[in-house]
What does this fold into?
Amino acid sequence: MSEVEVDLIEGFRNPEHMKALAALIKKECTSKINIMEVCGGHTHTIMKFGLSQILPDFIEFVHGPGCPVCIMPKERIDHAIALASMPNTILATLGDMIRVPGSKTSLQKLRAEGKDIRSLYSPLDVIKIAKENPDKNVVFFAIGFETTTPMSAVLVQQAIEQNLSNIFFHINHVTVPEAVDAIMSGGDAKIDAFLGPSHVSVITGFKIYEPIAETYHTPVVVSGFEPTDVMESVLRIVRQMNEGKSVVENEYARAVSREGNLKAQELVDTYFEQREHFRWRGIGDIPMSALKLRPKFSAFDAEIVFDEILPKTELNDHKMCICGDILKGKAKPFDCKVFGKACTPSNPMGSCMVSSEGACAAYFKYGKLNLKGAKA
Amino acid sequence: MCLSIPSRVVEIDENNYATVDTMGVKRKVTLDLIAEEVNVGDYVLIHVGFAMNKISKEHAEDSIAAYNEIAEAMRDGEISDEEGNSNYV
It folds into this structure.
């Protein structure tokens, strides 16, 4: 347990509190620690508030694969493009997904050419769209980690309850522990500890990280999103490292429990099962790291219903792109020869530049604030 | 990006949808992912139109105070604003 008594009434950005945490970390951290923040939301907090600047040089952040848009392989984007190109079809998705280029074009370009492609605020809008357009196919390109999988489950449930036969799901839901395991199991990743994703943990509970802490002897601290949450979590990591411990700690107790949201987990289990293989952009194939609809719901599964029109070619990123090494903590965005030159947020060559939550995109945007991060 | 601003439930309809208030912004979210009973006045954590769990009043109010500080710092130009693109994690 941390000795720092967080005075919550002071809020999470109280500069004095931040300084106090930074001073404690500086005092107690005596050797280099590479901390992977798995979640893009944490990457954002670290870059936006310049946390690297107020932390000692010993603390190095490695930006993980926790951005569902960044890890989507090009062939899956080509699936979305093929589905959106069908006549009489509306394709809906979320986030930055429509900006990301597949092998030839992006959903955004296709939309400019007149295809009906919608970027939604909430997945629930898909049900409304399907009801308003009974004579059209409505395809939901579902993306996201454990946080959003139960939401897709609710959509399938609602489609069944409301007898909607014109709605289809292209499922790209992925899971955090398997991805972390894939990065660590190669033995060449330079990662000493993890900041655990918070919203994922709200759903799954923090128990899902226990095997990682145990197997790789890395502390895992589940952290909230506010800057002081991240600082507090870094301090807890430093203390675990100093004590030679590697356990899962929950800094985000105000929203996360060990067991998580059981109702959400049940919904996921009802509608989804594990995929044997899923290719992650920048990492490659990770067995059992993604989900698909169970066979009894195949009438809703866009990959089965529209199988004939879906391209089957696997597509890798340009050889110059070093996203795989960046995700393992072996390199920094600034080490990449194409960073900021041939590869920019408006023209991404690799996964980490694709979305605002990717490591390269964050460095591109906030890089001037974080020159310390330039040293790998 | 995920934010963890707690939202206060101001109304619940018969379809299990709640109208929530997030720092002055009102929106409708579904309570389909919440097993326990939710009442007007409770705080929930929301993400892309879904309430994900309940948060205690004390924690929620602390969190909101923190976000108010961030919003104020942004208004004072201490932190630059960003595009409001919400990724779907």
The radius of gyration of chain A is 21 Å.
